Structure formats: C-alpha cells, structure tokens
C-alpha cells in the first residue's frame, strides 16, 4: 500500500509530495463517459460495482496517490427525505425546499448503514482492490443546508440567509439535524474502511467571516471532534481564503486551499500545526506542459513551510480538461517534489 498521502495528512516526512485531484473520477475521462453513457448519475452512485469501477479509473490512468469514493454530497440529503434529481442543464434539484418548521421536523437524521448501504458496499469493494488510500467524503452542514433551502444551486442564497437571520432557531435546528447525519455518515464510511475523509464546504465562501463564525463553523467543529483520532479529516472551505484564520478553528488535520490565494500566504494564515491541500487553478490544465510544470513548482515552493502538503487543484477538475495534461500534472508533482 502506498501510504504517502496518509503520511502527509499526519504531517510526517514523505519522499515526495502526494497528489490527488478533486472530481478526479468524472466526465473528462472517456472511461468514465463510457460507464456513464449506460446509466444515469444517481444509478451510478447507487451501484457499488460501478461506483467502485469509476473510483479506480483515475488511480490507474493518472497514477494519483489516493482514490476518492465516487458518490455525491447530496446522497445523504435524499436519504433524509428530500426528492433529488440531477438535471443535465441545471445540476442538482431538490424538490420541496426546506423553508419552515414543518419541513425541518419532517427531515430524518439518517443511519447511514441502513439508509445508504450502497455507499458502504462501494467502500468495501474498493478497499479490497486499491493499492492507495481511499478518501470518503461528505458535504459540510452549511453547504448541504444551502442546497436543501434553495432547492438546488443558487446565485445569492437569499432563502438561506433569510432563514439564518429571521429564524435563527429554525436554521439551527436544521443544521443540528444535518450535522448528526454527517457524523453518522462519515463514521459509517470509516467503519467500512475509508482511510481519510474530506468535508466539502463548497459554499462557505458566500458567508461573511462574522456569519461563517456564527452560523457554520461550530457544526464543522462538532464533526471534526466526533471523528478525532479515527481518520484524518480534510476540511475544504471553497472561496474561504479571506477567512483562513477562522477556517483553521475547524480543527481539521488538513485544510484544502483554493487558488485565489498564494499557497505561502495560506500556509502563513493557517499556521504551522496543520497540513495543507491544494491549490493549482484547475484551468492551468488548459495550458502547455511547461506552464503546468512552472505552476506546480510555485505551489510546491509555497507549501514548504506547512506541516504537510497534499498537492491538489484548488477546486474540481473541469470536464473539458485534456487527460494528458492531468497525467502531466501528476508526473510533474512527483518529479519536482522528489527528495
Ligand atoms: O471527486 C470525485 O471524483 C468524487 C466524486 C464527487 C462528485 N461530486 C461526483 C459528481 C464528489 C466528491 C462530489 C462532491 C460534490 N457534489 C460537491 C462538492 C465539491 C464541489 O464541486 O464543490 C458539490 C457542490 C456537489 C453537488 C453537485 N453534484 C453539483 C453542483 C453537480 C452538477 C455540476 C456538475 O459538475 O455536473 C453534481 C453532479 C456530479 N457530481 C457529477 C459528478 C461526476 C457530474 C454528473 C454526471 O456524470 O453527469
């Protein structure tokens, strides 16, 4: 087993910088498209053999140092009782968005082993086959709440913020239910065999720092404390570069960093007691190989002061990305960081 990724999570010395890519199993890979052409996205998530197959594809093709379970952050939300659909044009849709106390009280906190058994089955298949660590994941409570309250993606998050400000007790009750679900969900993934977990807070960056602290942070802290010592936790607050001093209070082992900040500045803001993950602009992969190498060098250099570094993009790989450039990225990271 190549455990370079896990060593970096723990801040131990590694002989090179491990790398994986957010959304590494996905549409930019013809091999993924082939599987996906036969089934819809939710069926793919719910069929352990297929989910395992597409999770392994990037490990074989790109030679990344970790696999991430193929699923979606909205899978447990569906299990909480909301009707979920993925539309090609609009992305995820959640019907009957949560706007009042009746809707909140109807939601269930899930027991993942019973309610989404296919996730744990995919994990069990994967750990038998992989020669690299497996990352499990969940959405963060705030990010999941935005989807549940808005009914899908959003531009200004007015419904979410209105609930936060006008009925904070209701918003808190919703966040409590989601947090219980996330803890159970991540614990079940760890019990099934994942080696680390990532908490995706894709919409944390729409909050002002003061609201992030008041309405989002404590729930992430609760999740991190519940999992402490069980598996390394990566917390990724997208668009959070302007509030990294607050983000670090989440207490995670590793902090994901997007590309809007110089990695050296991020390391400085996060302090010396955590590892960092990131932070190449995903669009760099549309550049020439020399540019990719140059930018990889810059990120590696910027992360030198961190307790540990896991190389990644600053957000998910884009569907239009040439596969050969993703391969070149992984090669460049391995070669340029070799010590
Ligand atoms: O990283 C991986 O390779 C594992 C798989 C993974 C998916 N979604 C597969 C997916 C992970 C970790 C996610 C997390 C996820 N899902 C997030 C957090 C990460 C981020 O991007 O900020 C969010 C916000 C979602 C919700 C979601 N799922 C959206 C907004 C969309 C539509 C946009 C899009 O890219 O199509 C999805 C669909 C989705 N999730 C796809 C994949 C591969 C595309 C579905 C398809 O094959 O058509």
In short:
The protein is an alpha/beta fold and 339 residues long.
**Main beta sheet: strand number and arrangement?**
7 strands, parallel
Shape: globular
Tell me the series of helices and strands, N- to C-terminal: HHHHEHEEHHHEHHHEHHEHEHEHEH
Q: What's the total number of strands? A: 9
Describe this structure as you would to a colleague.
- This protein is an alpha/beta fold and 339 residues long.
- The chain has one domain: TIM Barrel (Alpha-Beta Barrel).
- The chain has 17 helices and 9 strands.
- It has a 7-stranded parallel β-sheet. A two-stranded antiparallel ribbon has the order 2-3.
- The longest helix is centred in the middle third of the chain and has 25 residues.
- The radius of gyration is 19 Å and the shape is globular.
Keywords:
339 residues, alpha/beta, TIM Barrel, seven-stranded parallel sheet, two-stranded antiparallel sheet, 9 strands, binds coproporphyrinogen III
Write the layout of secondary structure elements.
Elements (H helix, E strand, L loop, with lengths): L3 H6 L20 H7 L4 H6 L1 H15 L4 E2 L6 H5 L4 E4 L3 E4 L6 H6 L5 H4 L1 H13 L4 E6 L1 H10 L7 H9 L1 H25 L3 E6 L7 H7 L1 H11 L5 E5 L6 H4 L6 E3 L6 H8 L4 E6 L8 H14 L6 E5 L9 H15 L2
Parallel strand pairs: 1-4, 4-5, 5-6, 6-7, 7-8, 8-9
Antiparallel strand pairs: 2-3
Helix pairs in contact: 4-8, 9-11, 10-11, 11-13, 15-16, 16-17
Coproporphyrinogen III binds next to strand 3.
